[in-house]
Amino acid sequence: MLGLMQDRPLLISQLIDHAAANHGDTEIVSRTVEGPIHRYTYRDARVRARKVAEALISRGVTRGDRIGTLAWNGYRHFELYYGISGMGAVCHTINPRLFPEQIVYIVNHAEDQILFVDLNLLPTVEKLLPQFTTVRHVVAMTDRAHLPRDCRIPTLLVYEELIADQPGTYEWPEFDERTASSLCYTSGTTGNPKGVLYHHRSTLLHAYGSALPDTLGIGARAVVLPVVPMFHVNAWGLPYSGALAGAKLVFPGVALDGASLYELFEQERVTFTAGVPTVWLALLNHMQANKLKLSTLKYAVIGGSAAPPAMIETFARDFGVEVLHAWGMSEMSPLGTVNHPKEKHQALSADELLKVRLKQGRPPFGVEMKIVDDAGKELPRDGKAFGDLLVRGPWITSGYFKGEGGEVLDEGGWFATGDVATIDPDGYMQITDRSKDVIKSGGEWISSINLENAAMAHPAVAEAAVIGVAHPKWDERPLLIVHRKPDAQIDKTELIEFLGTRVAKWWLPDDVQFVDAIPHTATGKILKTKLRETFRDYRLPTA
Questions:
Q1: What is the 3-state secondary structure (H, E, C) of 406-424?
Q2: Which residue, of 45, 176, 364, 383, has the fewest CB within 10 Å?
């Protein structure tokens, strides 16, 4: 017997309709690429998103067509999220920080029909346009007054003119909730990037899951500033969960330096933010150098790579901000876990509580996870055993766009994340390494992440990375690569002595190399493939 409940498809357009109807006067604030701060409301955004849909239809866009965006976090990009997906096309967000050849590959592989481009990224598109095989139109995301006179893109369209004459009365269509809604390509650190194709159902379920109290906990009284970019995994879903909750959204545009972010935090009374560690390092340095405080910020989500213990402590001790450690992947929409300590943890000492906070957290309902050994046997959730992390759930990929990478699920429907992790009896997961980054020394595994975190606890260390280097006796031994803080003084001996009180003796790096900068991927993660290439012929003093 079936239940007698209405059967309505879950569609992204319902989010902007809900926000406009119930939180219509709530602000969306953007620092624009042109310079000024732009303000309007959810009610205004819905009208303009409808205009986007009408304009696309007038240009021959049909359901399933891929529409590319090469843009920063701003109100026009927000309108594209809803206008493109709402009409049944696919919003393909492209990372402008990728190498040019990767951008060309992604645009052509996705077969983008129209490309929306922020003002300061037009020169990039101008150079690459001859290599794009399917793009019919390029739209500059600005008005005519700000359009550069020397731009040589043929038949360039202007965003504000494109939507100006549209009525904004478009009625969102209903269609199967499994219709593709958006497309995001992985970072492509090995081989070509692969496309993760989300659908409307997965996006709405992810928005529900991320807004839960023990995940991101966003409500209508929150003021949310997504530092994490809209061109990467949909800004961790915040443009969707923000609309679902009716939260005020503050978009920082292209300016992600410490001073610009601090100004927005204080000016707009931001309560919640999310981003990767490299951005927060710049913000903390700016505030400490200028003796500044944060008056309204309560929560900072840190994901993308492990949050250093010193960063978690500094946010809490000096600025009264609770860091929510999080973990996820493009293939997971991206939310996998968020760390909210349980009530029983509040009685722990500061050191013991920090150990809990350093874990990546617990999954919300909708994400299942387990760890397995090399034979695929499930390992105990005791916080000690570590193995390959597998996940499954309704907002986790079942395969890559156009079948790239082949079959990615096992017979039980589990997706292998490529991470090595532990899971404790309370469900808290902790990443100990990427499977390709773990250091295998004398048959034992050394966590590069834990070693990096220990090194970054030293006050002279700005950033640290650990890679395995070949060793004739132990197979691999750790090499510590360090970027010092400005004007800081520290040598190899002092740093290894410092680590000797924080990690097991056999974990200690066999050598330390100091560098001017540590390379990062386009999404802010440490680029260990580049480090391995740089130190490919490096010989350890112990070898």
A1: CCCECCCCCEEEEEEEEEC
A2: 176
